[in-house]
Amino acid sequence: MIHFAGKYSSDFEQGLLANANAGGENVHRGIILGALLGAEAGERGIPEHLKTGLKDFASIQEEIENFKRSVLSRTEAAM
């Protein structure tokens, strides 16, 4: 996992594909690798088709937006 994280730190999608193609315990490794590569890439670095292609994309997107609004309102209230 560390190998993939280092080698593919600048290419989110290729890192996930390399992990899947490596076989073995790729699901567990992929969860952690996806979190690391996603943190490095940020929202803009993750290809749109990997987000919008999710089965429940609309409800996931709504949940994310609600969370962001909640955090922002708490931050503004604390100021």
Brief overview:
With 79 residues, the chain is an all-alpha fold. It has five helices and no strands.
Keyphrases for this structure?
single chain; 79 residues; mainly alpha; 5 helices; elongated
Structural description of this entry:
With 79 residues, this protein is mainly α. It has 5 helices and no strands. The N and C termini lie far apart (41 Å).
Count of alpha and pi helical runs: 5
Give the class from helix and strand content and strand pairing. mainly alpha
Summarize the helix and strand pattern as letters: HHHHH
Estimated share of beta-strand residues: under 5%
Number of strands: 0
Gap between N and C termini:
41 Å
What low-confidence regions span 5 or more consecutive residues with pLDDT below 50? none
Please give the radius of gyration in angstroms: 15 Å
Give the % helix.
Answer: over 70%
| Number of separate domains | 2
Q: Can you give the mean pLDDT?
A: 93
**Inertia-based shape:** elongated
Largest sheet: none
What does the secondary structure layout of this molecule look like, with pairings?
Layout: H1 2-7, H2 12-22, H3 26-45, H4 48-52, H5 57-78
